[in-house]
Dolichol-phosphate mannosyltransferase (Mucilaginibacter lappiensis), 325 residues
Amino acid sequence: MTFVLKKKVSVIIPSYNEEKNIGFLIEQINETLSNTNYDYELIFVDDGSSDNTLNEIKFNAQLHANVFYIELSKNFGKDHALKAGIGMAQGDAVITMDADMQHPPHLILKMLKYWENGYDIIYTYRQNSNPHAKAYQKATSKLFYKGINMLSDIKLENGTADFRLMDEKVVKQLKLIDEYEIFFRGIIKWAGYKQIGIPYTPSKRHTGEASYSFFKLVKLAVGSIMAFSARPLYLVTGIGLFFSAMAILYIPYVLFSYFAGYAVSGWASVLATVAFFGGLQLLVLGIIGVYVGKIFMQSKHRPNYIIRSTNVMSIKNVNNDFIGV
């Protein structure tokens, strides 16, 4: 009699103040995967929640043998929480998804079919604008993807989500990446491999409100663009060269006006010119300063996250990430 080992799927779910969504999400994933020919584990990463999220995860971990938790020591951000979960995952395939039920669990079955057909990465992107998002969220989302596609070296579909499946060999390479500010949506595109995108329509949040504010979205956009390209530096260099050329072309006019005897001095035009170029210089220095700041933080080699507690048995110190249990 021949025994065939089932393939294992690890589902990584970063969670921040999602106490009322945990039990419902586990129920939905179990309904989706329980009748398949896969073993699966659910790894929740509590990213410094201020509500009862961690206790809710621990309660469900006692009820379900395949539910695990990772408690981070504070809020490190979604991408770092994903990295913590990926570092613990032991599956033949790893799926990442949000805890708010906007990523429909039934789409996992479609991902698994593509995976079995040889695709290494199956990612998702919003087919249409999110009908449940606020106006400013829709506007900033469009600006984000336009900006990153224009100014960085990667191309992302509008609405690319953190709902994806990755083969084990992809995950092994992701565990080796050691970046201070990691942006998984960009890293996945950059990594290559055989990829395919699946369009989806986001579901309404089961409970709660989105935790991303306008300023957090702006910070994410700036950090993501600068993480994948030096193009902003080239852009400001081009602007500087343009205005330098314009200044050189202005010299003949100044000389002609002087020798012709009708040069008129005006404090308003001088003040406006100084203010304009002063602002331009500050902008250029600001962009350079952000890059220098990123180099400074990367040189410290601080861990991306610190684990306070976990019930995952196979604890590994991956990429010098400090694990304090």
In short: The mean pLDDT is 75.
